[in-house]
Write a structure and sequence with these properties.
The protein is α/β, with parallel strands linked by helices. The chain has six helices and ten strands. It is globular.
């Protein structure tokens, strides 16, 4: 998304350069100058038409995401969020599954840090140093000490539908659902007011496919790992 800037005054910017004929196009020709640029953010996969699906994770307002899915997808998202310049803070009870990722990311820079559940210190996020907190705390994550705020987004990973899911889904701006059981799909369909076809599809999704829901907007997205991501994390999988 381009942001218009005002023209700078000539005074104080040196000598005026050589004069040339003005270049102009007709109104009908403007469409040919359009650039295929989506929203700012990280590419989380491709949609059903093969177009990039982009998530703006670094925001000046609080942003909560709930992912009912696999560790593999959460780790790919963490890597890609780090590539946007965000500091990734992982709150987890299984640090051994994140250690390799934390060491490999950032080229030796500590861009991914690991913390025990309930032990995440204040991060001091800012526009120049945004933070993404990934909560990998099992089926019943406790209420976090560090919550979403300006330039600090929180992604909570649930391996399956759990008793805390309705509360998390209600407060989340974005909800991702990967393959679940038919019973779980029915419950999720009711919570998110999904059409019958999308509800039924939730129990048959392929590894790496997520239904992302934001209000009334819904999109099936296939997350495709890069060669580097595959070398580090392996192939896409729903189960860990």
């Amino acid at each position: 998304m381009s942001v218009p800037t005002s023209a700078r005054a000539r005074l104080g910017f040196g000598l005026i350069g050589p004069r040339r004929d003005r270049q102009s196009v007709s109104l009908d020709q403007l469409a040919s100058l359009a650039l295929p640029v989506g929203d700012d953010g990280m590419v989380i996969g491709v949609d059903a038409h093969g177009r990039p699906a982009v998530l703006g994770i670094n925001r000046p307002t609080p942003y909560d995401v709930t992912l009912i899915g696999g560790l593999w997808t959460a780790q790919v998202l963490a890597l890609r969020a780090a590539a946007t310049g965000a500091r990734i803070v992982v709150e987890t009870g299984r640090s051994q599954t994140w250690t390799g990722l934390a060491h490999a990311a950032g080229g030796g820079q500590p861009c991914i840090t690991l913390h025990d559940v309930g032990r995440v210190p204040p991060q001091g996020p800012s526009a120049g140093s945004p933070v993404v907190v990934v909560r990998d705390c099992g089926m019943r994550p406790p209420r976090g000490r560090v919550v979403s705020g300006p330039w600090q987004s929180v992604l909570t990973l649930l391996p399956y539908l759990s008793p805390v899911a309705p509360r998390l889904i209600e407060k989340s701006a974005l909800v991702g659902i990967q393959r679940v059981s038919p019973d779980e799909a029915t419950q999720i369909g009711r919570m998110l007011h999904l059409p019958a076809a999308e509800t039924q599809a939730l129990s048959t999704l392929a590894d790496g496919v997520t239904l992302w829901c934001a209000g009334r907007d819904r999109e099936f997205v296939m997350t495709q790992a890069t060669d580097a991501e595959t070398g580090l994390l392996g192939g896409a999988r729903r189960m860990d």
